[in-house]
Amino acid sequence: EHILEFRDVGCRYKGGVDVLNGLDFKLARGEMLFLTGPSGAGKSTVLRLAAMQLRATRGQVLMNGKDLAGVRPGKVPAHRRELGMIFQDFQLLHDRSVFDNIALPLVIRGLSHTDLARRVRAALDAVGLLGREKSLPRTLSGGEQQRAGIARAIVARPQLILADEPTGNLDPRMALDVMRLFERFNEAGVSFLIATHAIDLIEQLGHRAIHLEAGRESQARPEAASRLTA
Ligand code: ADP
Ligand code: ADP
Predict the structure, then answer these.
(1) Could you tell me if the ipTM is greater than 0.85?
(2) pLDDT (tens place) for every residue of the chain, 230 residues total
C-alpha cells in the first residue's frame, strides 16, 4: 500500500480548462519524490489535491489506500493534520515568535503545555534553530525562516510532507541545506512530495522525479523546460 497514489487524475478549476489530464503516480511509504515541470504544468495543483484544498474532477487520489473522494468536508481538517506543508514564501506569522509559529500545529491538536514545549524544542533542535525561539520571523535569514517552516511542518510528526517550491526564495547554499534537512527527516521515515524547479538540486541528490508538462507526466528531459521558465 502506498502513502499516496494518483490514478488517472483530472482536475478542472471552476469555469476553467483541465489542469491535470490523467495523471498517474505512486509515492511509496518512506519515499522522497520530486515533481518538476514548467510554471503552469500543474505541480501545485497536485499538492492541493493531496492536501484536499481541491477535489479531483476525474480519477482517484488515494492516501494510505483510501480514496479521498470519500472524505466528507467535516473530515478535511483531520486529513490535513496527517500532513505537514512547506511553502516557497514560508508562511510564518510575523507577529508571533518562532516558538509560537512552530507550536501552532500542536495547539490545534490540544497538546498540554509541557508536551508542547518539549516537542517544539526538539523540532527547533532538529532544524538547528535552538536559541531562536523568542525571535520574530523577520529577524531570521531566509534560510532560517524556511528551517522554522520545516520545524512547524514536522513538529506534529506527520507521515507525509508536501512542499511547494521550498527553495524558491533561497540562495543555492541554503537550498542545499534545506534539501539535506529533508533527507534527514526522510531517513527517519517521513515521506516527501516536493514540487520544484531546482533540477540541478534533484540531480545532485538522486531522488526520483516526475516531470509534468500540461498536466501529465512527460518523458522529456526536464532541463529544457526548466531553462525556459527559470
Ligand atoms: P504549477 O504549480 O506547475 O506552476 P499550477 O498547478 O499552479 O501549476 O497551475 C496549473 C494551471 O492551473 C495553470 O494554468 C494555472 O493558471 C491554473 N490555475 C491554478 N490555480 C487556479 C485557480 N485557482 N483557478 C483557475 N485556474 C488556476
Ligand atoms: P490551518 O488553518 O492552520 O491550515 P488546518 O486545520 O487546516 O490548520 O491544518 C491542520 C494541520 O495541517 C496544521 O496544524 C499543519 O500541520 C497542517 N497544515 C495545513 N495547512 C497548513 C498551512 N497552511 N500551514 C502550515 N501547516 C498546515
Answers:
(1) no
(2) 899 999 999 999 888 888 999 999 999 999 999 999 999 999 999 999 999 999 999 999 999 999 999 999 999 999 999 999 999 999 999 999 999 999 999 999 999 999 999 999 999 999 999 999 999 999 999 999 999 999 999 999 999 999 999 999 999 999 999 999 999 999 999 999 999 988 888 988 989 999 999 888 887 765 544 444 44
Ligand 1 atom with the shortest distance to the CA of 41: 3
Question: Ligand 1 mean position to 129 CA, how many Å?
Answer: 34
- Cell representation of residue 213: 508538462
How many CB atoms lie under 10 A from the CB of residue 100? 17
Q: Is 23 in the pocket of ligand 1 (CB under 6 A)?
A: no
Q: Which ligand is nearest to the CA of 81?
A: 2
Is 101 a pocket residue for ligand 1 (Cβ < 6 Å)?
Answer: no
Residue 121 cell numbers, joined? 524544542
Task: List all residues whose CB is within 6 A of at least one atom of ligand 2.
Answer: 77, 80-81, 83-85, 91, 105, 108, 152, 156
Q: Which ligand is nearest to the CA of 153?
A: 2
User: Rounded to the nearest 5°, which phi and psi values hold at 183?
Assistant: -60, -35
Residue with cell 522522497: 32
| Pocket mutation for ligand 1, best pick of 9, 19, 89 (most atoms within 8 Å of C-beta) | 19
Measured distance CA(225)–CA(221) in Å, rounded: 8
CA–CA gap between residue 198 and residue 127 (Å, rounded): 21
Determine the distance from the C-alpha atom of residue 229 to the mean position of all C-alpha atoms in its chain, rounded to a whole number: 21
Q: Ligand 2 atom closest to Cα of 105?
A: 14
